[in-house]
Design brief:
about 375 residues, alpha/beta, TIM Barrel, eight-stranded parallel sheet, two-stranded antiparallel ribbon, 14 helices, 12 strands, globular
């Protein structure tokens, strides 16, 4: 060793420099959408669930009532005036989270303008509508998405059934102000920016209404809406969603009948649900509690629920509480169905696995012990 290397001064400096150097900033754990699911944890949760519990993961509904009642649904839906009192909503979410074996999604639809269920939140009282957002720069649209996401997280919500990717220059979606534009490129750009902002805030966006409502005049909540489009046109409408695949948690299927794919609404057509899955996210039904669905199918409401599962959907959305005395027994419908055929049990596992993957990407399964 040289004389220089043995210098006491040099030794002292060697010890002090690391102490004086600025500490490297702590790296934050990735959040949705960058966060990837832990496949081993997802599988561990899946294998720990009973058939009934797996079926529960498919349901996006009101929470079951009662302070001591277990919350079995995979997602808790907030509609109507359920978010009018923010402190009460926070408590409701806290209670539901504590009563659930698997942490639920807490979902709402906040699109903008008149479609804003968090109007009481001070950060969102001036949230622009879709057509106003379409006139803004992408960065401003993304900032509004992040603002919505932050307000949702403040209340405890983690899934937004928005934005709308429907391309409409006229018709039902244009008149009610829910469509960004009639120009596909602009819709793709602005809806993706809004979704990116939501995702940046740690909220899973669900784009709708897949594969596209277009400029149809009919309101599928009340009548049998038909899109007499070619398969090529359907795929063109669906392509608008594809730009946002990396930031979307999934898509909401429409209740429209695309005649080129069959006589049933998109939520019940396996080929269209499979098209939705090409984006890598969840396929979520529109409301299966709509009476018009069964009426126009000439079927029962129970059969609509069965077909929604058989079509391959991952979340079955219903505005009826699963334990409401006048509603359907969703567990009573789906549990016997999946137990009747090993193929259906495999399909159930595949759907629940996709649900759990998204939950893990949101950080909901972190530290899960069952």
């Amino acid at each position: 060793m040289s004389a220089v290397a043995r210098s006491p001064l040099l030794v002292l400096l060697t010890l002090l420099v690391p102490l004086l150097a600025p500490a490297a900033p702590a790296r934050k754990a990735p959040r949705f959408p960058e966060r990837q699911a832990d496949a081993a944890r997802v599988e561990r949760v899946l294998q720990a669930l009973s058939v009934r519990e797996k079926v529960g993961q498919l349901l996006l509904a009101y929470p079951q009532v009662g302070k001591e009642t277990p919350v079995e649904v995979g997602g808790v839906l907030f509609v109507g005036t359920t978010l009018r009192k923010l402190d009460a909503a926070r408590e409701r979410i806290r209670s539901a989270r504590e009563r659930a074996r698997v942490p639920p999604f807490f979902a709402v639809d906040i699109e903008g303008g008149n479609f804003n269920r968090l109007q009481r939140h001070p950060a969102l009282q001036k949230l622009p509508g879709a057509q106003e957002l379409a006139a803004l720069e992408d960065g401003e649209v993304e900032a509004w998405g992040a603002r919505v996401g932050a307000a949702m997280r403040d209340v405890g919500l983690n899934m937004n059934l928005a934005p709308v990717f429907d391309v409409a220059a006229r018709g039902h979606m244009f008149r009610n102000g829910r469509a960004f534009s009639g120009d596909a490129a602009r819709v793709r750009q602005k809806a993706t920016a809004f979704a990116r902002g939501l995702a940046r805030a740690g909220v899973a966006p669900i784009g709708k209404h897949f594969p596209g409502y277009g400029d149809l005049d009919a309101d599928s909540d009340h009548v049998r809406a038909l899109a007499d489009w070619t398969q090529e046109r359907v795929r063109q409408e669906a392509a608008v969603f594809r730009a946002a695949d990396t930031v979307l948690g999934g898509v909401m299927m429409s209740n429209i009948v695309y005649t080129a794919y069959g006589p049933a609404p998109a939520i019940l057509e396996p080929s269209l649900v499979a098209l939705a899955h090409e984006g890598g996210g969840l396929a979520v039904t529109d409301d299966v509690a709509i009476a018009a669905l069964a009426e126009h199918l000439g079927s029962t409401r129970e059969e609509v629920v069965r077909r929604a599962f058989l079509a391959g959907n991952d979340l079955i959305l219903t505005t009826e509480p699963p334990d409401w005395s006048g509603g359907l027994d969703y567990f009573g419908i789906l549990v016997p169905l999946v137990q009747s055929n090993p193929k259906y049990l495999e399909q159930l596992d595949a759907a629940v696995r996709r649900v759990l993957r998204l939950k893990d990407r949101l950080g909901l399964l972190e530290g899960w012990t069952g």
